[in-house]
Amino acid sequence: MKEYFPNTGKIEYSGDRFKKGPCFRQYNAGQTVGGKTMEEHLKFSMAFWHTMGYGGSDPFGADTMVRPWQNGSSPMKIAEEKVYAAFEIMQKLGIRYFCFHDRDIAPEGNTLAETNKNLDSIVKIIKKMMSDTGIRLLWGTANLFTNPRFMHGAATSCNADVFAYAAAQVKKAMEVTTELGGAGYVFWGGREGYETLLNTDMQLELDNMAFFLQMAADYAKEIGFEGQLLIEPKPKEPTKHQYDFDVASALAFLKSYGLERDFKFNIESNHATLAGHTFQHDLRFARINEMLGSVDANQGDMLLGWDTDQFPTDIYSTTFCMLEILEMGGFKKGGLNFDAKVRRASYRPDDIFYAHIAGMDSFAKGLKAAWKIMEDGVLKDFISKKYESYSRGIGKKISGKETDFKSLEKYALGPGTIDNPSGRQEYLESILNEYIFTAE
Amino acid sequence: MKEYFPNTGKIEYSGDRFKKGPCFRQYNAGQTVGGKTMEEHLKFSMAFWHTMGYGGSDPFGADTMVRPWQNGSSPMKIAEEKVYAAFEIMQKLGIRYFCFHDRDIAPEGNTLAETNKNLDSIVKIIKKMMSDTGIRLLWGTANLFTNPRFMHGAATSCNADVFAYAAAQVKKAMEVTTELGGAGYVFWGGREGYETLLNTDMQLELDNMAFFLQMAADYAKEIGFEGQLLIEPKPKEPTKHQYDFDVASALAFLKSYGLERDFKFNIESNHATLAGHTFQHDLRFARINEMLGSVDANQGDMLLGWDTDQFPTDIYSTTFCMLEILEMGGFKKGGLNFDAKVRRASYRPDDIFYAHIAGMDSFAKGLKAAWKIMEDGVLKDFISKKYESYSRGIGKKISGKETDFKSLEKYALGPGTIDNPSGRQEYLESILNEYIFTAE
Amino acid sequence: MKEYFPNTGKIEYSGDRFKKGPCFRQYNAGQTVGGKTMEEHLKFSMAFWHTMGYGGSDPFGADTMVRPWQNGSSPMKIAEEKVYAAFEIMQKLGIRYFCFHDRDIAPEGNTLAETNKNLDSIVKIIKKMMSDTGIRLLWGTANLFTNPRFMHGAATSCNADVFAYAAAQVKKAMEVTTELGGAGYVFWGGREGYETLLNTDMQLELDNMAFFLQMAADYAKEIGFEGQLLIEPKPKEPTKHQYDFDVASALAFLKSYGLERDFKFNIESNHATLAGHTFQHDLRFARINEMLGSVDANQGDMLLGWDTDQFPTDIYSTTFCMLEILEMGGFKKGGLNFDAKVRRASYRPDDIFYAHIAGMDSFAKGLKAAWKIMEDGVLKDFISKKYESYSRGIGKKISGKETDFKSLEKYALGPGTIDNPSGRQEYLESILNEYIFTAE
Amino acid sequence: MKEYFPNTGKIEYSGDRFKKGPCFRQYNAGQTVGGKTMEEHLKFSMAFWHTMGYGGSDPFGADTMVRPWQNGSSPMKIAEEKVYAAFEIMQKLGIRYFCFHDRDIAPEGNTLAETNKNLDSIVKIIKKMMSDTGIRLLWGTANLFTNPRFMHGAATSCNADVFAYAAAQVKKAMEVTTELGGAGYVFWGGREGYETLLNTDMQLELDNMAFFLQMAADYAKEIGFEGQLLIEPKPKEPTKHQYDFDVASALAFLKSYGLERDFKFNIESNHATLAGHTFQHDLRFARINEMLGSVDANQGDMLLGWDTDQFPTDIYSTTFCMLEILEMGGFKKGGLNFDAKVRRASYRPDDIFYAHIAGMDSFAKGLKAAWKIMEDGVLKDFISKKYESYSRGIGKKISGKETDFKSLEKYALGPGTIDNPSGRQEYLESILNEYIFTAE
Questions:
Q1: What is the interface pTM, i.e. ipTM, of the complex?
Q2: Which residues of A touch B251 (CB under 8 A)?
């Protein structure tokens, strides 16, 4: 097996924050934070499509990156080498999980049958590598957006043949994910939406999408898939308007069709911000609805209107994310998948290492800050005091749902005056900064 | 009773499109469109707060408008004159409905009891005017956002005393709305949301909001209110993040708490666009979920990030709106409320007439275009053909939910090739233009 | 010469607005509007890259469109057939101009010398076709963004070799444009900007960009190019921040380097809106600075944050555009270039015709409305009256710059009271609608 | 003189990062950073309008804050007490500068003459307090946006009487600023722009605005004002489109009218982001054009479309700002003005202290990080290496402007191959984080 990065060894934690070259400055896998190691808290995953497949193209430019594993003699040979390179990268970075679309790992053939055969061959190789390295599959998914057949959607296509094709593809992808012991299976409906209502039957499309997901949930049970089914919301791009706009939209959909018990959410930072929310908002909203399954750990550019899928380096974003995950008690079947690509101009192979390090360090620092905030109870105490009126008197009756409009009116007509606490946002932001700066 | 606009008579329809002065150029109340008069189709409503109350202030400027009805000797006298002026304006414009917040029509007193008394006095006057003119109440609502006591929200305040006060206020507003025979009652949660999650207990706030709405629904039944309860979504402003972000978010909320049968939506154009949707999207989504109750007919500025509440003059927007309403079979208990204010520099009293005329004409034209589009079936036929694969073969089985992943895979592995229809967006946009230009 | 659309004849004007199939419903080339024919007013141009080259790909999907002219036996043969197909399309649509990038019309070779040779061969063919058909070149340009060598920019690259390469490429493209008698030459700096200031020397990049443009202007004179040099501003995409953000930014740049006499602007609707302006704003600002050279006639989606390059069908946008062009006295060396692509799902060859028809009809209607508005003087009269205070008394002194702060203070301390006119925005929007609806 | 905050002493630096109560955790006035004290680097200024005048209102809500200094017996008495309270706040916070609008410090009278008299009285008191405390005026300005007379603009009003009034007001404000030894005078044109082009003469408005600024510059010289004249750009709000959209737009304007030598820019973070730029972009662009005069230190919410004027707590933003200021060699006549208001729900008087502390600490940390980055040369070295090709060979000729298109083509046709450096964005972001975390 060829070594693709002979000059790069295993990335180590360095106590020196300003050491040159690829090393961790915050992420120390074995360091204990609140009784668990960083590695246990931060279930990092490599995204096969970006790390192994992205070549640097954008809507106005061709690929900039020539990856050494792409020099194979045939598409299948290239696919095989890509697997070896992927596992080398993960091992050197100490990343214990990965995610993939069916079409990332194996090329399409001339027929669906041939495509499936290609997939099976590569899955066998991946399985071997997983067994050799202990690296695990966070989740699998099917690519239902690249091929032109999906121009009008997959489960929401106006074309029943496309619906059938998509079903067959998901069926196979679920089998493969099960075969590899995936902890999850993701549905991202990049083309499930519309371009213009002038030509769209929204009702039929939503009904079809629900039936599709129902069949998927049924089939997961049928084949004994033990992972979590996950919906990944995104408001738009490529489609002008996607039905899974955000967590709340997708939750409304699931509840409308009685599917809410079969799915949780895979929440992506950049998708949340494109929908007009903070990353933390969608995490929180999913968490309190017990629907937070897994996380796509990246970041967007708040001044750009498209998905930039940058590696996460904003310390506020990683801290808030880890706060929600810690509050949830950590991931059950989820993890932190780097759905992130190096910038087009970070085109050298070693940028792959620098970029993942940047993301892992930012999350490690965020974990340390979040843990300290939780441990000290600084936010919890503030909030608890702010809402304390609900623990006594009329507030307790409200909490207990033991009152009604008439009783409340009687109370409000009474002699009491209203005294609000201060929100103290500036103070809290200031304290948050200190937790971030000092967490070790 | 003083006449406030002695120089303005009843606004009439003019056959001459370029006639100077205030007149209708498209809206002809008695003209029949598809078997109903324009007046029956277009249940226009005047918004008391904007038309009677807006003085032209903005975050950087003081009021520009001096309204003649504001010269009264006391707050209550002013409130009374405002009613007379309102009915004069509605009568002259031929507007048959109005909407109000409790605090628009009567001033707050020193205590809630006194405030309620003020409200009762003015309601009596309004009732008399309604009876005299035949003008009706589209919906009432309570203002739970202006007073500083609502700084942290009303039903979602961290302060139980505020929750109680809000309940008392809504109770009274519902009674008053019932008294006036309102066709609806609206909940717009302008402060129901949060500024920062650093100081927010989202779970408690959502639970409280649900309990509040439950009590409201119960009380509506108790007092025999026959109108429709309506939620009005808005994503943000004044609050950084509002829980009723858009129709889908609010629907998820209602379903989570089992409230979806008691409420429908009041959809505002400018709120939909602030949420990242087209107006038509939110109308359509509500309609197919049988949740479209009423409409706030205004428009925003797509380059500005706040609610501009402009009078609706974009012909595409009014045409799409009327398409959804016609598809629904027209309003049951809803209408087209001009939640719109004249621009700050359109500060002369007669701009009130010009602005309402602009909105009414734009909706009249939109109605005529939408009706013709429906009658000709031009979009329906196109869509029907585009989706025809679901009416036969495998498509029919999908529609009927009589298949599964295994059968679909078998089909997809078969010999068929996939042939997609064209979306033809440009052609449809072009045809839409002709319907708009030619509809009479 | 093969006919690529044997079933489509010359597109004709139809008096019947609802005639099926491809025909003009508003654009009647020979119809006179204000003494000039529509064809003279509306110098439509076909964009080679979109119409001939766009295959339907987007960041998440592969090409959907198979164009018949792409079946050639070699890249050069395909390039030749593409020219024939382009002229067939233009002739059938009655489009009299076209625009191209160097790389649209001829493939890159292994060396720059070979690439230039390829270009020369195709230019010869184009020249022949132009001569045969009377179709003319609106403008040419060089593609300095697709090839990976431009990853850090072209004139603003950190790499001097890239700067040199870009200079050589522009030199050749200018020669070719001159050879074909182009009325203009465009600079769109898609990669002239930065991704992050962390790695950027903005000062050096701006200095280099200015020197590059200076050399271009010098070279244009040297070779006797008689067309107009044009800058095309765009705020972002693909680059995070482009130096030619909008007309004002580019004007500041030109003035800082003394280049403002050598360039005018090519203004694109979708670029203006991405910069936070209306299309009309950038047109107006350029016009009153005598910098409005040409127009890229398309439209964006106001809810999407990227360049959608849609065919222009919004009647407000085309009317406002034509108003500015008419006010300028029509184009000198500019035109209306359809920098627009069919939607990815409008993938059938005949959608090319439907889309251009949609754009041409929308501009034809916009021209008719704009002309009538100008002829009636409806806006001009309103504005003239609104600003009339500058034609007398203190206002006249201000206009004539014959006063100073001291005199103005003396006036302001005087007895006069301030009486503002109403802005009347709603009324004007309403009147605008009627002009649009009725213009024939 | 009444003490308004008897329970709050001088705010001190605390070595303990988690000490409760109001204290500095990063800002240590006397600590030396690169040879200057923090106090010398960070010329903090209090904004009179926000800190002393903002009552908590927003477009949907009334004031929440009752300030003790507002209990005076007359408007003039209140204005006087406000001055005392302001100086107490500044002294306790250790803030050495302040800024004001004319109307912030003294109430309008019935006539301009009376208003000017009010202003003179308060200015006398302020002058005394400045002398007693050593606190200085960063800049003064005139409020040309609140009063309804400015509904159509001030210098760009359609009404010459308003233009004259504005001139008189600015004249007086400049005199007062001179009297108080202000280091600057600011022009923020909140109403200098338009709502709709349907009723706007953009050419006349721009000409008038230029004449107004010309007169202001002349008058400044006439009265011996030694401070810097500053333009403060903002893209929109309250006006739909403001002429001083961003630094580049305002620079184009100044250059078009030959005013660029008389003005520099006062750059506000929240205004830059509303214009689609990062704060750092506008700072950098102004700096390299030698137009960076002063800074309004606040922050916006990237998900909200309006000016939130929050206290600056984002450490990235403050670090980038300090980097530009340090690169410039520090402020000459500028400073860091907290154009920031406490959140509406941070309504308690002590939130004023917490908020300013949050801002001061964030800038202190940013200063320390920026200084270390500069001292280590980490970014400078990276950039220098990235652009090194311009220091030799063909690159050197380009830098020296000693080449032309022909020579460059010859070079490009040569045998060389192009080898680009990596942009390394992820690595640089990661390193930036470490500088922020560790700077002391």
A1: 0.97
A2: 252, 256
- Helices D247-256 & C247-256, crossing angle to 10 degrees? 50
* Mean pLDDT across A124-130: 98
Active site residues of B: 101, 104
- The question of whether D104 is a catalytic residue gets the answer yes
Residues D139-162 have a mean pLDDT of 98
Q: Which of D59, D148, D236 minimises the CB distance to B304?
A: D236
List of residues 6+ apart from D336 with CB closer than 8 A: D42, D43, D44, D45, D295, D297, D363
Residue contact A424–D302, C-beta within 8 A: no
Give the chain B residue nearest D158 (alpha carbons).
B345
> How many CB contacts within 8 angstroms connect chain A with chain B?
277
C428 to chain D: closest CA residue: D198
On whether any CB of chain B is under 8 Å from the CB of A117, the answer is: no
Contact residues on chain B for D240, CB-CB shorter than 8 A: 301, 303-304
- How high is the pLDDT of residue D38? 98
Residue found under tokens 């990815």: C344
Count CB atoms within 10 A of the CB of residue C365: 24
Chain B residue numbers with beta carbons less than 8 Å from the beta carbon of C359 are: 426
Q: Which residue of B has its CA nearest to C24?
A: B430
- CB atoms near residue A392 (< 10 Å): 11
Per residue in B196-229, pLDDT (tens digit) is 999 999 999 999 999 999 999 999 999 999 999 9
Q: Is A167 left (phi over 0), alpha (psi -120 to 50) or beta?
A: alpha
Which residue's entry shows tokens 């999906």?
A: A150
**Inter-chain CB pairs, B–D, below 8 Å:** 94
Contacts 24+ apart (CB under 8 A), B327-330: B327/B287, B327/B374, B328/B287, B328/B292, B330/B36, B330/B40, B330/B41
- Flag residues of chain C having pLDDT under 50: none
Residues C195, A56: C-beta atoms closer than 8 Å? no
pLDDT band at B20 (very low <50, low <70, confident <90, very high): confident
Q: Assign residue A177 a region: left if phi > 0, alpha if psi is -120 to 50, beta otherwise? A: alpha
Helix (H) or strand (E) holding C212: helix C202-222
Average pLDDT score over residue span D236-252:
98
Kindly report, residue by residue over B400-419, the tens digit of the pLDDT: 999 999 999 999 999 989 99
User: Is residue A356 pLDDT above 90, yes or no?
Assistant: yes
Show the tokens assigned to A291. 């629907």
**Cβ under 8 Å to B: C residues 254-273:** 273
Whether the full predicted model's pTM is greater than 0.95, yes or no, is yes
Taking 90 as the threshold, does the pLDDT of residue D426 lie above it?
A: yes
Whole-number Å distance between alpha carbons of D20 and A211: 56
B190 touches chain D (CB under 8 A): yes
Distance (Å, whole) CA A411 – CA B164? 7
Cβ burial A187-217 (10 Å sphere, 16+ → b, else e) = bbbbbbbbbbbbbbbbebbbbbbbbbbbbbb
A59:C237 CB<8 A:
yes
Q: Is C65 at the interface with chain B, CB within 8 A?
A: no
C151/A56 CB distance under 8 A: yes
Please write the tens of the pLDDT for every residue from D312-357.
999 999 999 999 999 999 999 999 999 999 999 999 999 999 999 9
Number of residues assigned to chain A:
440
* Burial class (CB within 10 angstroms; exposed 0-12, middle 13-18, buried 19+) of B180: middle
Q: How far apart are CA A53 and CA A48, in angstroms?
A: 7
Give me the numbers of helices (H) and strands (E) for chain D, helices first please.
Answer: 15, 12
Q: Cβ of D192 under 8 Å from any chain C Cβ? A: no
* pLDDT of D20 strictly over 90: no
pLDDT at B15: 80
Neighbours of chain D (3+ CB pairs under 8 A): A, B, C
Degrees, nearest 5: CA angle C68-C70-C76: 140
